[in-house]
Pyrroline-5-carboxylate reductase (Salipiger mangrovisoli), 261 residues
Amino acid sequence: MTQGLAVGVIGGTGMLGRSLVAGLLDSGLLRSGALWVANRSGTRGALPEEVRVTADAQELVAGCDVVILSIPPAQFGALDLDASGRLVISVMAGVSLARLAERSGASRVVRAMSSPAAARGLAFSPWCGAIGDADRARVTALLAAWGKTAEVADESQIELFTAMTGPVPGFVAQFAACMAEFATRRGISPSVADMAVRQLFLSAGEMMAQGAASPQDHVQEMVDYAGTTAEGLLAMQAAGVQRVVDIGLDAAVARTRKIAG
């Protein structure tokens, strides 16, 4: 699937790009010297010597079989690139498959989304694109280096996941911050509240990631138990917690669809 492939990340020293590079390096999928990074300065920074670094994006394309685009979407229009004959994977928010093909010259294009959690192999990276079976296997293997991955039906779903799972810790951190604020306003010291909430979300994430029960299953189990947590959950539901979440995610999706300009 990836044996013998050379892979390049354009924008590989930005926040997301660094994470993608780290995930690929840690995965051991690529042979030494088969990972390229292009950035505007051409500086290596903290990248290991095994990574080839260039300021010339076209040089990267010439040396790679797969090109990953991880630049700010507003900068894509200024990128001078001919990636014809290459498999192009974009993790840029809001840039359509049609525009990717038009600007890059590539006929094999994939639109994906990931997150900085890729550096730890903990990202969810959905993707879509009209490609053949061999490329499908390559894309799946590469994105799996960053955590979990799934092929989705169309670009509109990529935009939903850009809002939902791209901004790690994002919306989860917002809920954690609300819980910590609840505790501190009731007299618990900020440091203890912070410790408690961090541990809560760590354990909850582990339980939901490893078990067969869905998040909704966990909620229903607590409701059925009819204890103190049930009272809180039912009160949140009655107050419209789903509506608040919908409003926030819809706003993020709307921004995703505008961000590329």
In short: The CA atoms of residues 204 and 210 lie 10 Å apart. The domain at 7-162 is CATH 3.40.50.720 (Rossmann fold). The chain has two domains: 7-162, 170-256. The longest strand covers residues 123-128.
